[in-house]
Amino acid sequence: MSAKIRLYVEHPLGQGQSVPLTREQAHYLFGVMRLGVGGGVALFNGRDGEWQAEVAEAGKRGGALICRHQSRPLQMPPDLWLLFAPIKKARTDFIVEKAAEMGAARIVPVQTDFTNAERIRQDRLQAHAVEAAEQCGGTYVPEVGDLIRLDRMLTDWQGGRQLMFCDEAEAGRASALTSGPAGAPWAILIGPEGGFSPDERVRLAGLDFAHTVSLGPRILRADTAAVAAMTLWQQAMGDWR
Amino acid sequence: MSAKIRLYVEHPLGQGQSVPLTREQAHYLFGVMRLGVGGGVALFNGRDGEWQAEVAEAGKRGGALICRHQSRPLQMPPDLWLLFAPIKKARTDFIVEKAAEMGAARIVPVQTDFTNAERIRQDRLQAHAVEAAEQCGGTYVPEVGDLIRLDRMLTDWQGGRQLMFCDEAEAGRASALTSGPAGAPWAILIGPEGGFSPDERVRLAGLDFAHTVSLGPRILRADTAAVAAMTLWQQAMGDWR
Questions:
Q1: Residue B201, class by beta-carbon neighbours within 10 Å (0-12 exposed, 13-18 middle, 19+ buried)?
Q2: What does it catalyze (chains A, B) (predicted)?
């Protein structure tokens, strides 16, 4: 029997391990979800898999859970990064949620020539990634990076990572995803509304690790494009195979 | 040169055709977008392709456009229906928007055993589909159907349409989309939160036109699942090939 409530914690998890709760977690479990002593919660911390735990102490300002048994091993996503240009708040939140559900290992907001955002709330986006991982049954939470300029990121590119470049100027061509070196890490790059600048497109076209991919004949919003691109990648090279 | 503003109208479009504007459209073009006489607008009506038009009369309560030349022929999407169980308002709106962007020909809200919604606002959902078509450059607007019970829909199923059934109980198996008869029309079925009932799953498994497909090892929210499933289908059998 698995608990329906899934909670991300930072504490280590293991057989008989006691896990203290923050005030916020105690409020959620005991105030909102109305759990009492003996109630079941599934825990994960991104390192030790999923554990079925039981409420040992329940208070207004805190409490503790005891880990009973591991219900799922840690399942790491493939080494896929999602690079995206932050857009309006709700859709940016949405992209982070979707990236976590779709199994991105790392989420990187990038500032492109046509990106308006000057800053992001990294902590808020990270919280969205945690919530999505709690909801989708994942045992891993992707890390949300700080906002970085795309040109700097491309200059510092490392480790043979391949880049799937979703260019809306390609709308209408075949969406084939050419594969890079076997087993290479990958990143997907989704542009902002208005797409990429001519300079960026020239630069990307000249990079030997970049692969241009079309996402069909219609122009997709950035959030749609992120899910569609991750689907193509997961099916061709990731953990949907 | 193509106008940046795209507007869906119901009026026929053709060379030299005058197109009257509703009060709402006039408010949008002249009040919000600040267009004046001579300003350019791209028009489509779902039948005659996309036309570049020019403002001929601009008033507070109406106005008229004149069609100058066709900029894109009508591009019909493949014969793909998206069947989905309505969920919370924002996510239902989102699914309709995504279905239009991804090129569904028809969108059908279905009531399943685990669907809470008793009714939908068909007119509001249709307006979302129009807006998405305006935004994504499509020349076609998918029709949003009325809410229908899934069991009734399956009983009345017609015309050799194949059904891609996205079952979250399949999470973790291969996501291969087996193809049905060549050139057959298709539908994608996305369940509500909580998935399908045991009765529904038994029934669907026994239908010769139904094909079970997995959407990877994580459990996707319904809106994510809709985009992912349409991506798989469009790439395998639709207009992304």
A1: middle
A2: uridine(1498) in 16S rRNA + S-adenosyl-L-methionine = N(3)-methyluridine(1498) in 16S rRNA + S-adenosyl-L-homocysteine + H(+)
Provide, as residue numbers in chain A, all residues whose Cβ is less than 8 Å from the Cβ of B231.
227-228, 231-232
Which of B93, B134, B224, B232 to mutate to probe the A interface, most A CBs <10 Å?
B224
Kindly state whether A210 is in contact with chain B, defined as any CB-CB distance less than 8 angstroms.
Answer: no
CA distance readout (Å), B122 to A27, B80, B87, B88, B127: 39, 19, 14, 15, 9
* Averaged pLDDT score across all residues of chain B: 91
pLDDT digits (tens, 9 = 90+) for B4-49: 899 999 999 999 999 999 999 999 999 999 999 999 999 999 999 9
Kindly state whether A75 is in contact with chain B, defined as any CB-CB distance less than 8 angstroms.
Answer: yes
> What size, in residues, is chain B?
241
Fold match flag (A6-72 vs A80-237): no
**Which residue is associated with the tokens 């503003």?**
B5
**Which CATH superfamily includes the segment(s) A80-237?**
SPOUT methyltransferase, trefoil knot domain (3.40.1280.10)
pLDDT of the residue at B1: 47
The token pair at B77 is: 């999407």
Domain boundaries, chain B: 6-72, 80-237
Question: Dihedral angle at the C-alpha atoms of A68, A73, A74, A79, nearest 10 degrees?
Answer: -170
Could you give the residue ranges of the DSSP H alpha helices within A102-221? 122-136, 150-155, 198-205
C-alpha span between B110 and B106 (Å, rounded): 13
Strand partners, A148: A110
pLDDT digits (tens, 9 = 90+) for A78-119: 999 999 999 888 889 999 999 999 999 999 999 999 987 778
In angstroms, rounded to a whole number, what is the distance separating the alpha carbons of residues B110 and B117?
9
Cα gap A123→A146, rounded to integer Å? 10
- Per-residue confidence (pLDDT) for residue B176, from 0 to 100: 62
DSSP single-letter state for residue B192: -
Pairing of strands A50-58, A40-44: antiparallel
Listed residue (B34, B45, B48, B46) closest to B4, CA to CA: B34
For chain A, the maximum distance between any two Cα atoms, rounded to a whole number of angstroms, is 61
- The mean predicted confidence, pLDDT, of chain A is 91
For residue B28, the one-letter residue type is Y
- pLDDT one-digit tens code per residue, B176-202: 676 667 778 999 999 988 889 999 999
The residue behind tokens 């994960």 is A44
Residue with tokens 């809470």: B116
The CATH number of the structural domain formed by A6-72 is 2.40.240.20
